[in-house]
Each structure stands twice: as C-alpha cells, then as structure tokens.
Batch of 2 targets.
Target 1
Amino acid sequence: MRIIFLLFICLTSHITYADKLLILGDSLSAAYGMQQHQGWPALLQKNTEWQLINASISGETTAGGLARLPALLTEHQPAAVMIELGGNDGLRGFSVELIQANLSKIITLVKQHNAQPLLMQIRIPPNYGPRYVRQFTALYPQLAEQHQITLWPFFMDSIAINSDLMMADGIHPNIAAQPMISDFMADLLTELEKK
C-alpha cells in the first residue's frame, strides 16, 4: 500500500509539472485595455487542466522577452513555453535578422531548461512594405524548421479581419474577441496533448 501511495504522489507531481505552460507574449496576450480576468489567458484557464502562467507584457519586444526569460524559467519551471513575440519589433521596423536572432535565443534557452518551445506565427500590417512583411512572416516557419519545434498559427488571423472584434486602434483584440481566442488556444493545447 505504501508503494502504491508513493507511486501516486510521483505521478501526481509529474502531471502538475507537465501541465505548466508559460505564456511569453506582448499586449495581445496581456489583456491590453481590459481587466486581466477578461483576457483570453484567464478565460482559457477555466477550460483547461494546464496551469497557465501569463508573463505577457504590453509593448514587449523579443529583446525584452529574452531578458526576462531566465528568471521566469527558474521561478516557474514550466513544461512548455508559448512564445508570442515579435509584433512590436515589426511595428518598430526592427531588422528581421535581429528579431530572428532574439527568438532563436529564446527557443534555445527554453530547450536548455527542458521545456518545450511553442512558437506562434506573428503577422504585421501590410503597410510596412511587401518585402519587409514577407521576410518578417517567413522568419517564424524558418525558426520552427531550424529548431524542429511546433509552430502554432496566429490566433489573430480570423480576428483582425473583423472590425467588430478589434479595438479602435486596429491592432488589439477587444473584449468580444477574447472568448474566441481562448477557444482557439484550447484547441491548440488539445492537439499538443495528443502528441
């Protein structure tokens, strides 16, 4: 009986650890313009067994995320890290090479902490010029292939084209969009669990 009990404790500890997901993102994941409980991470937490740690900050860049990541990994010991960064870099016109280098370092750091990197595709508005937009968009699948990691589709793809789901700035999803993003992310997490 004692052996079975100890085995149960070990399995329970493993499940708790495996369910921990760190969200490293920007304003799109930080409930920008609303209360934290209204954002998609808080809504998703109610519908998933994963323990979500939302470390997203409005205005965050890949460099900022890279600088904060070591402490976050040490503190939370996540099993997986969702990387939702690069949008602010793109909006500021940072070089694609710099963005790619920072994201590559983030992915490598996550792997070094025995966590699974989950890279989200990010897109920027077309008014930044076709060449820059094309190179920016392409860097995400390139990184996923280079590091052999999961590339998740952008949760804003179906949101950004609907003005009813966007704030007046045309960049951020509004409160009405948050449940949709939560459902979208729940499906991705379900697929992840099957792998």
Target 2
Amino acid sequence: MNSLRLYRDGTEIPQLGFGVYQVPDDEAERAVRTALEIGYRHIDTATLYQNEEGVGRAVRSCGIPREKVFVTTKLWNSDHDRVPQAFDESLARLGMDYVDLYLIHWPAPKQNRYVRAWREVEKIYRDGRAKAIGVSNFTVETLTRLMDETDVIPCINQIELHPYLQQQKMREFHDKNGILTEAWGPIGQGQGLLQEPALAVLSDKHGRTPAQIVLRWHIQLGNVVIPKSVTPSRIKENFSVFDFILDHEDMAAIGALNAGRRLGPDPDHLG
C-alpha cells in the first residue's frame, strides 16, 4: 500500500485509510478490526464521532504493533478554547499515549478561535504526543491566516473531495505550500455519484466497481483518502485499488464530472 510523506523527517501516512464517521462505538470496533485484518493501517476518527473508545479497543486488541497503525483523531469546534483537556480526553478514550495525527476538525471562523487553538495543538506536537498535526475543512483564507500567524504549517488538510467537488484551487494551494490533501466523503456519501454513467463505462472497462474506480482516481491524484463502510465485503473491495491504473482518458472522464457540488457543510458557515 502507498504511503505519502507528511514531514521532511520521513514521517509518513498510509494513502488509503479507513473512516468511521457515523459508525456507533461498538460497530466501529468490529469494523476497524475487520479493516485491520484486511490490511488497512490508517484509521480516522474524531471526538465528534463518539467512537474513539471502539477504535481504541480494536487497535489495541488487533495484535498489530501500535507503531504500525496510523491513528487520526480531531478536535471538535466547542473545544477550541480547551485544547489540552480535549486532547487528553481523546487519548483516554482511545487508550493510547499518543496519536499519529491530530486535526482541528473545522475552522469555525465565526468563533474566531482557530488560530489560538492551533497554537495549543503546536504544543502537543512539540511534546511528541501527536506525531503530526493538521487541519480539516480549512479554506485558502483560513489556512493562509493560520500560516501567517503561527509557527508550524499544517502537514495536511482533510476536505470534502470527490468527483462532484474536485477542489482544484485547494489542491493547488496545498501543493504550493507543502500540505497534503486528504479527501473525506471520497465516493460521494451515497448521493448519486456511483450511479454516474461515466463511472459505469470505466467500471466495465477495468472490471472494477464504480467505488474502486473513484478511489483509484483519488490515489492517482495523490490524495490521502478515507472511505467508510461497515460491510466486510465493501471494506475489502475498497482496499483493492492498487493493482490497476486509470489512463489519461479515464482520468479526464472523471474530471468532467466536476460540478462544484458540496454534499456536506460549507466550511465558511459551520460553527
């Protein structure tokens, strides 16, 4: 499985991860254990998801050394003014003494607390309790302010990104500033993307499912991607995207689906 470099010191993140948004805690434990058995080594959770305990149980009991499993969690909007406490609470729920990646989940710009919160996140990074730090759902404007007013550039920005919302401007900004792009909602959250005729054509061409086609598109763009499922066969299917290649015409056909269409909240307005 591919990994991408987060920092010049060699710290890496597995490019294909496993997300657990909206998965209840006990179900998350089973799903994460299944994902780890299949070969995933990157698990993405958050305080908001209320399943850090289940994720932690699965990671601790899977038989894989902790340092071989990349774990991400996130700071919720209501915790921007209590970062140290919120981080300690996440570690306690996970049953871990560090996480591999800690993200500010949303900038919540109306609160105007994300810069101060990031300074506290920087301290956690310097203490070694988060091996890497980044953000989620930040825009060019909020990222630029963060970079101008703080010391550590976020290594990654996790954003809504799929063929309907390809985020070219954000990806170019990330590339310019050495920030990785991570895609949430990568296969469209069940809102019609996988029924697109163009994906059916590519599915027939490559003998793959539409979901595998879209995930491969992300991989070839260089995105970190975190599909979610609780169905073992689907979890396995989503992992099987490293043994075929989309050609230039395939990539262009998926690129033509871009409609600037958000399926989730607008980062300028949430919080």
